[in-house]
């Protein structure tokens, strides 16, 4: 898959998260890092028909958000089901990198790193 199309697909998925998912608003950077890693990885595993770990209460919480995303992505974006799994993994990695930038490293929200908050 060409780089431009990969980024375009990741942006479509990102737009859905930004409009429909409240979990993006955790108040600490480390919470956001953990949620992005777990939710996006589990979503990718579900979309690629791979086993998903959900043994702990925390993992089950991430799984619920991932299941919602995977199901929504399949319904709203037909190309998700048609995409090669290797390309889908690339799209999901690009999505995670962009999400991390927007919600953590590029965020101007000072309370994300305030040690007193």
Automatic annotation (TrEMBL):
InterPro entries per the UniProt record, alphabetical: Nase_Fe-Fe_dsu, V/Nase_d_su
Keywords: ATP-binding, Iron, Iron-sulfur, Metal-binding, Nitrogen fixation, Nucleotide-binding, Oxidoreductase
EC nos: 1.18.6.1
Cofactor(s) needed: iron-sulfur cluster
Molecular function via GO: ATP binding; iron ion binding; iron-sulfur cluster binding; nitrogenase activity
Pfam families for this protein: AnfG_VnfG (PF03139)
Catalysed transformations (reactions): N2 + 8 reduced [2Fe-2S]-[ferredoxin] + 16 ATP + 16 H2O = H2 + 8 oxidized [2Fe-2S]-[ferredoxin] + 2 NH4(+) + 16 ADP + 16 phosphate + 6 H(+)
Subunit and partners: Hexamer of two alpha, two beta, and two delta chains.
NCBIfam families per the UniProt record, alphabetical: anfG_nitrog
Function: The key enzymatic reactions in nitrogen fixation are catalyzed by the nitrogenase complex, which has 2 components: the iron protein (component 2) and a component 1 which is either a molybdenum-iron protein, a vanadium-iron, or an iron-iron protein.
Protein name: Nitrogenase iron-iron protein delta chain
Species assigned in the record: Ruminiclostridium cellobioparum subsp. termitidis CT1112
């Amino acid at each position: 898959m060409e780089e431009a199309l990969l980024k375009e697909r990741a942006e479509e998925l990102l737009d859905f998260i930004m409009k429909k998912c409240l979990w993006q608003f955790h108040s600490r950077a480390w919470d956001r890092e953990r949620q992005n890693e777990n939710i996006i990885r589990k979503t990718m595993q579900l979309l690629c028909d791979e086993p998903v770990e959900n043994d702990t209460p925390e993992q089950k919480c991430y799984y619920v958000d991932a299941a919602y995303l995977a199901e929504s992505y399949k319904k709203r974006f037909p190309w998700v089901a048609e995409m090669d799994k290797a390309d889908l993994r690339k799209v999901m990695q690009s999505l995670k990198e962009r999400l991390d930038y927007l919600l953590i490293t590029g965020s101007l929200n000072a309370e994300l790193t305030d040690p007193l908050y």
